[in-house]
Amino acid sequence: MAPNTPPVDMSDTPPKADWIGPLQGIRVLDFTRVLAGPAASLALADLGAEIIKVEPPGTGDETRTFPPFRDGESHYFLGNNRGKKSIVIDLKTEAGVALARDLVEKCDILIENYRPGVMDRLGLGYEALSAINPRLIYCAISGFGMTGPLRDRPSFDIVAQALSGALSVNGEPGHLPTKLGIPLGDLVGGINGPIGILAALHERHSTGRGRLIDVSLLDGLIGLLGYIAQLAFFTGENPKPQGSQHPNLVPYGAFPASDGAIIIACLTNSFWARICDALGFPEAGSDDRFDTLEKRRDARDTVNAMISAQTQTKTVDALVELFTQFQVPHAPILGVKEALAQPQAVARDMVVETEHKTLGKIPIVSRSIKFPGNDQPVPAAPPVLGEHTDAILADVLGLTDAQIEALRSAQVVA
């Protein structure tokens, strides 16, 4: 869009009944498993792309074996694979690799999250596949990327958290660092992978060619350090863990209530007087001992004790009512069940029901990106292993029933 061009008004655009998202018509060949890669292909599925998930015979994606289960289906797999199709191909056979290469010709994007070199050894690396399909966008996600001294090492979420510095600033002061409750070390692949892919899709419009994208989970977490990294550059010291508090903003974090705890976030100086008014000590709002961010930071213990003395006499509900009235940034600390059931999440359709092949109707977390003006259908349920094998071979590759049966008899597909 050119500078100063007014945004397009979508309010009068008639909705398309069969619209599934802005990536409708884009096909992704998905060789990912566990979390980092599936998170990336999940983001593209939510945007409307067709995801063909290639799984090995037997167990399929390893997360299908992660307990707990319901009727044999893993909670872990269900959480990361909605809206995808599953095809089982044995890539240890020449015919299986040949079948995968045939699919590459029909796809726009390939995502894989094996260690660097694995796909090359299978004959499915970028150089080999771009010769077949020059428009192919190939996204390789790995713990450390395709270069550097750690490229061949295995990596898991907590490893990336530790090596990035993120783990060192998480936890309570004076205690061992604590890993993030959300596996952000892996999930950063689900953020940066799609960003790179969408940029390459845009570039392909002008060049006609795809490209290789190298996503490192360690790079991603280091990139998310943001002001924490800049604080280390400025001070020359390692930032310390602050629990739920902020290194430079006070009050900021969890404060006790009579029946739990509540978050207060004084992000800018303008909120300080509102907090003081809400808690019944308005004089502190203009007290020159606390009237700047720096002064409150230096008087952290005094300020926090003053606030805690008031919050601990009130219930969480009472504090929510007070802070809402005085427009103070705040939040009750919700459990996952309560977070999924809260009115805001319900109003935004963040939990929906979908029909699973073996489990029947199941609740799933829905798309986190909305497109006003068009209603997307409820995401398809995560597939059972090999659920779409025959349909993909017939619809994408045009194979006959006899050809599909021959592949099955030869145990190339299942």
Protein model, in words:
The protein is of the alpha/beta class. It folds into two domains: 27-224 and 351-409, Rossmann fold (3-Layer(aba) Sandwich); 252-334, formyl-coa transferase, domain 3, CATH 3.30.1540. It is 37% helix and 15% strand. It contains 17 helices and 13 strands. The chain has helices at 36-46, 75-80, 94-105, 118-121, 126-132, 157-164, 184-207, 217-223, 227-235, 270-279, 293-298, 300-311, 316-325, 336-341, 343-347, 389-395, 401-409; strands at 27-31, 50-55, 69-70, 73-74, 84-88, 109-112, 137-142, 212-216, 252-257, 260-265, 330-332, 351-356, 360-365. The chain has a six-stranded parallel β-sheet, sandwiched between helices. A three-stranded antiparallel β-sheet has the order 9-10-11, covered by helices on one side. The chain has a two-stranded antiparallel sheet with strand order 3-4. Strand 1, helix 1 (36-46) and strand 2 (50-55) form a beta-alpha-beta unit. The chain is elongated and about 85 Å long. The two termini are 47 Å apart. Residues 1-8 have low confidence and may be disordered.
